[in-house]
Amino acid sequence: MAKEKPKEDKSSFDAVPWSCTDMKLLLISLLSLCSLATIFQFFPSTSGFSTTVITSCFPKLASVSHNLSSSPPDVHPLREEQLGSDSVVRRAFNPVGSAAYLFVQMGAYRGGSNNFAIVGLASKPLHVFAKPQFWCEWQPHGGPGGDSNSTFASGYSILPDWGYGRVYTVVVVNCTFPVDVGLDGSGGQLVVHATTGGGGGDRAVQTEERFVAVEEAPGSVNASAFSAPPKYDYLYCGSSLYGDLSPQRIREWMAYHARLFGERSHFVFHDAGGVHPGVMEVLRPWVEKGIVTVQDIREQERFDGYYHNQFLVVNDCLHRYKFMAKWIFFFDVDEFIYLAPKTNLDSLLASLSPYPQFTMEQMPMSSKLCRSTDHGKTARMWGIEKMVYRDVKRRVRRDRKYAIQPRSAFATGVHMSQNVAGRSLHKTDGRIKYFHYHGTIAARRDPCEEFVNATAVTYDGTPYVLDETLRRVAGAVRRFEHKMIGSRLARTRQ
């Protein structure tokens, strides 16, 4: 007889639905309780009940709550909106933190025995809506220390790119002390106190930052350098170089102007991403000869200023080389300076020495038109040989470029300086001008697109005339380059 199968315990089976129901109710109750306890955290309470429940239900939330409760006391208060008597709702905006830096220093340089220039960037909105101020403090080394040992002066700020700045604007802070500082051989440091000055509804807010702008080792300052003859007659301060520049165009520009400026000259290029290996290959022979200095300024891209911080770069160059050159030239690498026939640069600038600044007229050249007789040969020609048509459209305001006597300047710009001591000259009677090959410096191909056989032509609505002024000097420039650096650049690419 088969063994009977044991009967299932129906009582325990029937109890299962009741246990689930009870569990659901329990979970719902716990969830409601924990949610309620969480909400209680946002209301002032002295009860430890909610904290206990949150700690047990949500230990991570309890940790966050603990961190928030330990915040420093200087929490920004909330400003509420208000309903005015005119029934207008006046909304409140609650600013926290900083939109841009109070000051970003690029360089700081002596301007004399008692003078310094600090070149940098600052928040443009701050300078539009507030009145930032700068104070200068000279702290000598080796003294007793403290304010009693320091010399103070107010800082005068110059904004040379006003109207061009973006998030940041260029600020040149001039510190002129009432007495000579740091000339006794003790050394010292220049400390700048920068304040926000308040603005709009924040006029009562005054935030101050202090930073060391200049550090001078004992015995490092030679006061005679401020009056000694400069090392160079002419120095070129280049604007920010960026983009995919043509090595061949840079090659032509460098050889042309090294010949024009002569042996007592120097060229400073600022690499904002444009000095790629091909361009550096072109400049390296000149760097090795001590004629060229390349500065890497790629970090400036962190700060949103006008045209890769062009104004910042030229002002830094002005003050960095203030006592090293008689004249500093400011123009671009797609522009070629030209002197009238039988004009010598030394004698010309000697005649212009009464003026701390002079500007040069622009000769705009076509970047597309070439002569029909050059068809098939332009690949072997330099740009100044084949681009020979000049724009002669009338009643057009052309940009000017300029040269400056740096010891007479406090700040500068891209097309001219408005901060010089003395009168500027804007009419040089054609003795010095510059040819502008706009749109060619980054062209990595032969620029000739149209070949014409005429001395005058209208192209795309613009009148042009044949102008072979620079074509006639190209051969001499080639020979000069070969004399200076040999044939190292024979295979330079476009």
UniProtKB/TrEMBL annotation:
Main location class: membrane
Keywords: Glycosyltransferase, Membrane, Transferase, Transmembrane, Transmembrane helix
Broadest EC class assigned to this enzyme: transferase
A GO molecular function held by the record: glycosyltransferase activity
One Pfam short name: Glyco_transf_92
Catalytic activity, EC: 2.4.1.-
Location within or outside the cell: Membrane
GO CC terms, sorted: cytoplasm; membrane
Family affiliation: Belongs to the glycosyltransferase 92 family.
Protein name in the entry: Glycosyltransferase family 92 protein
